[in-house]
Amino acid sequence: EAGVTQFPSHSVIEKGQTVTLRCDPISGHDNLYWYRRVMGKEIKFLLHFVKESKQDESGMPNNRFLAERTGGTYSTLKVQPAELEDSGVYFCASSQAIAADTQYFGPGTRLTVL
Amino acid sequence: AQTVTQSQPEMSVQEAETVTLSCTYDTSENNYYLFWYKQPPSRQMILVIRQEAYKQQNATENRFSVNFQKAAKSFSLKISDSQLGDTAMYFCAFMKLLYSGAGSYQLTFGKGTKLSVIP
């Protein structure tokens, strides 16, 4: 069974540009989460999808971040325009329909904004 | 809001020895889950062990075991017979148990402990 995959693994962009990160959850997992780790800090929750619906987006830092989950399958996280403080590692995780089930993490996307 | 504290940014242990990573948390909740995740260098994060707060018995997974002290809000991870493959970043995480269906089962993480196993 394929795990959670994320693309790209690394992205280097300049301040003001747009970047789109993609996450493919484990097949059949209804719950999809986005987290972010800024250098030296904790991994922080960004948002949670249940199928295609946003269950909780309380962790999204501001309106420059837009997340979507097309048809309840893969998800994208777009940052527009990117700022220096957006640099970090963005993790995606998925879990089965039982919401308190174990979350399986992807390898992360390392975003560097110059 | 919940907080998770890992007071040891880095640790090292000799191969085959035992090491304990500490984690404390702060919450007003009574029912929750606690996790230890491991992220090896350049690899993705995987679950090491999980503990339900309502269970008094400490969780164990092969060489990994926890010491869960609910009253003290402490959740340490013990790795026995350390192996080179245990070299990784270890994250302690908290999840609140929801009853109403509202909200999400988001994880609250500590800053992590970088563990190096020395041959």
Task: Describe the protein's architecture and organization.
- The complex is a heterodimer of chains A (114) and B (119).
- By secondary structure, chain A is mainly β.
- Chain A contains no helices and eleven strands.
- The radius of gyration of chain A is 13 Å and the shape is globular.
- The mean pLDDT of chain A is 93.
- By secondary structure, chain B is mainly beta.
- Chain B is 0% helix and 51% strand.
- Chain B is built from no helices and twelve strands.
- The interface between A and B is medium-sized, with 27 and 24 residues.
List the helices and strands and how they pair.
The complex is a heterodimer of chains A (114) and B (119).
Chain A (H helix, E strand, L loop, with lengths): L4 E3 L2 E4 L5 E6 L6 E7 L5 E8 L2 E4 L8 E5 L5 E5 L8 E8 L8 E2 L3 E5 L1
Parallel strand pairs in A: 2-11
Antiparallel strand pairs in A: 1-3, 3-8, 4-5, 4-9, 5-6, 7-8, 9-10, 9-11
Chain B lengths: L2 E3 L4 E5 L4 E3 L2 E3 L5 E8 L6 E7 L7 E2 L2 E6 L4 E6 L8 E9 L10 E3 L3 E6 L1
Parallel strand pairs in B: 2-12
Antiparallel strand pairs in B: 1-4, 3-9, 5-6, 5-10, 7-8, 8-9, 10-11, 10-12
Run of helices and strands of chain B = EEEEEEEEEEEE
Tertiary shape of chain B: globular
**Can you summarize the main beta sheet of chain A?**
7 strands, mixed
* Strand percentage of chain B: over 45%
Number of contiguous helices of chain A? 0
Structural class of chain B: mainly beta
How many whole angstroms does the radius of gyration of chain B measure? 14 Å
Counting DSSP E segments of at least 2 residues, the number of strands of chain B comes to 12
Query: How would a crystallographer describe the biggest sheet of chain B?
Result: 6 strands, mixed
Output the number of helix runs of chain B: 0
Any low-confidence stretches of chain A, pLDDT <50, length ≥5? none
Whole-Å distance between the termini of chain B? 41 Å
Overall pLDDT level of chain B? 92
Share of helix among residues of chain A? Answer: under 10%
- Shape field of chain A: globular
Radius of gyration of chain A: 13 Å
Number of strands of chain A: 11
Sheet-strand content of chain A, in percent, reads over 45%
The helix fraction of chain B, in percent, is under 10%
Average pLDDT metric of chain A: 93
Return the structural class of chain A. Answer: mainly beta
